[in-house]
Here is the input.
Amino acid sequence: MDLLPSERDQEGLQAVFQSVFPVTDFRDVSKLEFVDYAIGNWECKCGHLKGLHHLRSTCKNCGFTITTDPFHPGEVLCDKCARSMRTLRTSATSAVTPWDCS
Here is the structure.
């Protein structure tokens, strides 16, 4: 549940949808392709966090997208370049703005 559509492995619902689609009619005139799926709209009760993008940061060294925890800021290791990066509390609109979600 904490992965963006582009980050999902080919298992579970993702694998089922990938195996069923594309669907074509019997004359091959129409084709329905699977793009991605989402289950509900996740939103923090304070309204500052929406979706999953607030759980991602970009490595300043290589530009790789890193999964972070906005409620427990600290050091995170980049999976691509193995450099350590300090993370801060983030909001959905600003990468370094602190806020209190209670």
In short: The chain is about 10% helix and 15% strand. Residues 90-102 have pLDDT under 50 and may be disordered.
